[in-house]
Amino acid sequence: MELILMLNFGFLEDPADILIFFGRFHPLVVHLPIGFLILAAIAQFASRWPKFQPIQPFLHYLWALGSFSAFLAVLFGYLLSLSGDYDTDTLFWHQWSGIMVLALSLACYLVFKKQGKNAQFVKWSLVVLVAITITYTGHLGGNLTHGQTYLLEYAPNPIRGMAGLPPKKEPRPKVTVLDSADIYLDLVQPMMDGKCVSCHNPGKKKGDLLLTSYSELMKGGENGEVVVVGDAGASELFRRITLPENHDDFMPSEGKRPLTDEEVDIIEFWITAGAFPKGYVTKLDSKKEITETVYTYLGLDKNSIFNQTVDPPNTTLIDSLTDNGFIINRLMRDNYFLDANFSLSERKIARTDLDLLLNLKEQLVWLDLSHSGVTDEHLQKLGQLENLVKLNLSGNVISDNGIQHLSKLAHLESLNLYDTKVSEGLIDLLPKLSRLKSIYLWKTHIGDTLAVRLQEEYKNLTIIYKRETYK
Ligand code: HEC
Q1: pTM as predicted
Q2: Rounded distance, CA 13 to CA 3, Å?
Q3: Residue 9 pLDDT more than 50?
Q4: What's the rounded Cα separation, in Å, for the pair 240 and 236?
Q5: Residue of the CA atom closest to atom 36 of ligand 1
Q6: Where are the alpha helices (H) located in 82-176, listed in sequence order?
Q7: Is the distance from the beta carbon of residue 204 to the nearest atom of ligand 1 less than 6 Å?
Q8: Is 170's C-beta closer than 6 angstroms to any atom of ligand 1?
Q9: 252 in ligand 1 pocket by Cβ < 6 Å?
């Protein structure tokens, strides 16, 4: 090989590149010896039947093709190994069993070329050995490219057990409430799985670093630990993901999809908080530094109500509501969610109207009851319309006591209380409306001080109060 290295590839900056360039054909070329040699072995057995006897004089050509392509595979494989990207143990065995395949197939060529009848046992042992070695070599080759765990990753647990592997990892259930989000298990490890383990796994251990589990990550890489507990700034892992993207040390390398700003912030928080193997975000984050980010990162802010399918509403019910002064519209083409509006009716709303509405509880997501004569007492029924996303109660005589009935509206995103008597009662209500995005509070009994205080506490809530919002 030194000889090749010494040849002057004048047109290339780095002569080793051309070798690895050829080396990368190895995964393509290896399929040739596999095909030829398996075919040769089968044909060799078949030729024992009288029917296939006529192919016998040609069999040694198959062995010749097999050994020649095995030679190419070995050569290109060697060139590829020069890149140093592979697990050295597996590589050692893969390389030598590949060379064995070459030697055995050459031997087959030689013994079958001579049509002599002698030494049958030796001949057939050679054929069987070629078949076994080629399977073994191929398997190791697969492990090198895909990682040791690739083949049995999806195997049933009893089979994994026989191979000495631990049972399959149970996938983490999808996080649906913020309080159950685990900083490492639900956030950090999935980021590693998605963006880092393709190069940092047991088969392809770049920088001698595994990012497949907490303990491996904490063990570090060729230059020691990559996470300094409590100090993100001093952690190599954090440095690598925050460098400019074109920096040589930037991770993930080779232009792979980088971590997002949110992901980087979450990792920073995780390291600073103590780089624990598990722990709930909401417990660790007493100062609320990262909770909001995690909330949106996990998609918990998206209203899941519209992903549900609801049944078509009862048409007689719709008719009676329309007769009573409601305007009812369907909101989407492929679902039966409804928008109901009573604000244009000349009547005041009555309890019986609300009873009718309750029968539409499943479909009703937008409701406009502005200037409709709604009272605190009515709110108790309204509070049961639990799929409401938007509710307009402006211009009604309702107060703090009444609005507490709205606390079960878990999907509510917009609440209009403009021109009502609402005041400090909001302090109790707001924490319960976890999806609320905007609230209209002008012309209520809420003063400037309270409005500012609420805005400081609920940073992601748009409070429409004076001319401008406090965003
Ligand atoms: C395309 C392959 C690739 C991907 C994807 C990748 N890395 Fe790397 N990583 C490497 C290579 C190659 C090295 C060794 C060379 C070096 O130190 O830059 C390395 C080295 C490192 C090191 C230094 C280890 C040591 O001890 O020196 C850290 C830390 C690291 N990677 C973290 C990450 C993180 C975090 C991700 C995911 C965001 C990631 N890597 C994704 C290829 C990759």
Answers
A1: 0.51
A2: 18
A3: no
A4: 6
A5: 196
A6: 88-113, 120-146, 157-162
A7: no
A8: no
A9: yes
Q: Are 274 and 235 in contact (CB under 8 A)?
A: no
> Residue 380 above 80 pLDDT?
yes
**For ligand 1, is residue 209 a contact (CB within 6 Å)?**
yes
Within a domain: residue 454?
yes
CATH of the domain at 368: 3.80.10.10
Q: Which amino acid is at 154?
A: Y
Q: List the single range of 37-41, 158-162, 310-314, 424-428 with lowest mean pLDDT.
A: 158-162
Six token digits for residue 158: 């009893």
Quick one: pLDDT band at residue 399, thresholds 50, 70, 90?
very high
- Ligand 1: residue of 253, 256, 261, 267 to mutate (most ligand atoms within 8 A of CB) is 253
Closest atom, ligand 1, to C-alpha of 237 = 29
Residue nearest ligand 1's atom 29 by CA: 237
Confidence of residue 10 (pLDDT cuts 50, 70, 90): very low
Is 62 exposed, middle or buried, given 0-12, 13-18 or 19+ CB atoms closer than 10 A? buried
169 located within any domain: no
238 and 212 within one domain = yes
Assigned token pair, 369: 């009851």
Which pLDDT does position 248 carry in this prediction? 92
**Nearest residue by C-alpha to atom 7 in ligand 1:** 252
Same domain? 268 vs 360: no
Which residue has its alpha carbon closest to ligand 1 atom 21?
A: 207
Q: Which domain holds residue 273?
A: 178-297
Measure the CA–CA gap between 386 and 405, rounded to whole angstroms: 11
Residue that is last in its domain, among 237, 268, 297: 297
Query: Where is pLDDT greater, at 305 or 108?
Result: 108
Is the domain of 312 the same as that of 277?
A: no
Q: Is 267 in the pocket of ligand 1 (CB under 6 A)?
A: no
Q: Is the CB of 13 under 6 A from ligand 1?
A: no
Question: In this structure, which residue's CA is closest to atom 17 in ligand 1?
Answer: 207
